[in-house]
Amino acid sequence: xPSPITKETLKHLAELARIELTPREEEKxxxxxxxxxxxxxxxxxxxxxxVEPLVSVTGAKNVFRDDDERKSTNRGAGTNAFPxxxxxxxxxxxxxxx
Amino acid sequence: MKFLxxxxxxxxxxxxxxxxxxxxxxxQGLFRxxxxxxxxxxAYLDLHEESALQEAENVDIxxxxxxxxxxxxxxxxxxxxxxxxxxxxxxxxxxxxxxxVASYDATVIQKLKEExxxxxxxxxxxEFAMGxxxxxxxxxxxxxxxxxxxxxGGTSGGSAAAVAADMAVAALxxxxxxxxxxxxxxxxxxxxxxxxxxxxxxxxxxxxSSLDQIGTITxxxxxxxxxxxxxxxxxxxDATSAETAYGDDLLNPDFAKIKNLTIxxxxxxxxxxxxxxxxxxxxxxxxxxxxxxxxxxTISLPHTKYSIPCYYIIVPAEISANLARFDGIRYxxxxxxxxxxxxxxxxxxxxxxFGPEVKRRIILGTFVLxxxxxxxxxxxxxRVRSLIKNDFIEVFKNVDVLLTPATPHTAFKIGEKVxxxxxxxxxxxxxxxxxxxxxPAISIPAKSxxxxxxxxxxxxxxxxxxxxxxxxxxxxxxxxxxxKSL
Lengths: 98, 486
Hints:
Number of strands of chain A: 2
Largest sheet of chain A: 2 strands, antiparallel
Strand order of the largest sheet of chain B: 1-3-2-4-6-5-10-11-9-7-8
CATH superfamily of chain B: Amidase signature (AS) domain
CATH architecture of the domain at 1-47 in chain A: Orthogonal Bundle
Number of strands of chain B: 11
Low-confidence stretches of chain B: none
Mean pLDDT of chain A: 88
CATH superfamily of the domain at 1-47 in chain A: Glu-tRNAGln amidotransferase C subunit, N-terminal domain
Strand order of the largest sheet of chain A: 1-2
Largest interface: A-B, 52 and 73 residues
Number of helices of chain A: 3
Number of helices of chain B: 16
Largest sheet of chain B: 11 strands, mixed
Radius of gyration of chain A: 23 Å
CATH class of the domain at 1-47 in chain A: Mainly Alpha
Structural class of chain B: alpha/beta
CATH class of chain B: Alpha Beta
Helix content of chain B: 25-40%
Structural class of chain A: mainly alpha
CATH architecture of chain B: Alpha-Beta Complex
Oligomer: heterodimer
Distance between the termini of chain A: 49 Å
Order of helices and strands of chain B: HHEHEHEHEHEEHHEHEHHHHEHHEEH
Number of domains of chain B: 1
């Protein structure tokens, strides 16, 4: 069974995932993915039409916290995690062309 | 320092309270030992000597003033490099985060700070917890203390090696498909992966959020119970954390009750490919537990053979979403961005910053979630995950705990398998099912070292106990019962 990921698909996926790949990396990835997809073949033999997908292993859903005022112990944690900032603003590279 | 060898949390507590040693003496002794030993093992990425000595001294002062000390006061710990300690460089062993400094404490770290624990340093791991040998670290390969030509396992290989080499009294790791249990088995220490939801994931760098759990790596089962007890509990910062109600039996198992538990042996885990040394070690454990009066029953988990494909579809899918945050805008920028537009920053940062296994999984995850393939792969794997979980629900109607090997073989050679990702994926064969089903599981050394033909070193073997959700007390209880009998 050929891998569903061709060279063209791989280029498209890398673009979607925003990862630059070298030609050598592409070659190795295609080789590895072929082996991995061969291993996935086994799943196709298993009928699952009447099985519900498992989305929450503990069964928990829609977990809310109380809408209360609370003291933050992590003030500044968000802005501190930005490599570039100036006067309390976060700096990012240009999004639009000049 | 003579006390360091085999120093456990329990022995540390006893020695500290009886004034056999001070917390500072132990911490100083450990750093001396680490400086010598870790040049060979490479378990740590970063040491926090100054703050650790201060933390230890504070415990000594509190003790001298007659303060009641919490159970983990002064206990020197190694912390896996994907768990945030505020103000510390935390990289998940990835080049993309080599300049990142944690801006808050993980909930488990907050809890351990309240316990007055001592943080020795950050332990090495496979990049973003992807791998099975700690060879995927962007910075260094950790060696197995039992044989330095072999891997310590992964992904919490630094944590397991540090504990095994007495370079920490205990450690925290994280486990998504076996990342605590497999390195613990390879290094001859005890690794506990708690029930999904038992421990807050807040401040753990996410890999596959529906499976990740923080857990403990210790020298004894008793220590695992003590450390787990300190980090467990519901946390509003993690919506998937659960309200837990652990009773006294977690720390003080009643062996008369433990003896009456029935142990299931899943036939799918005792395959012919199982290394002979593993099979005989597990047989030894079984015999010992029989002698102690425990009953066994052979059971079947029929969907076991689908667990690896199921796991390696769900995990990359979650990775492709979780690791999208590392974009060169937030957390770190390792490239020169002058003259680059936003898209170019993304692709260059991620192209240079991520290692091969991380890229492989992001690409694979992007594919299985993509339009046209979602149903055939991701949705299919979620359905298979239901079947795997149901297998466990069924068998737990008849047995209380399962006994299996922790790994298919003992620690392998460094470099031997590093270019074979599928082989590495199959390392999770006995461990990933409990993550898929959200169950607690522990790896405990089977006391029969295996002689390696080449080196004459004896390599550890681990056995695994899997319990019902939130019944850590059962697997810890049997583990402690076994340990005491040796």
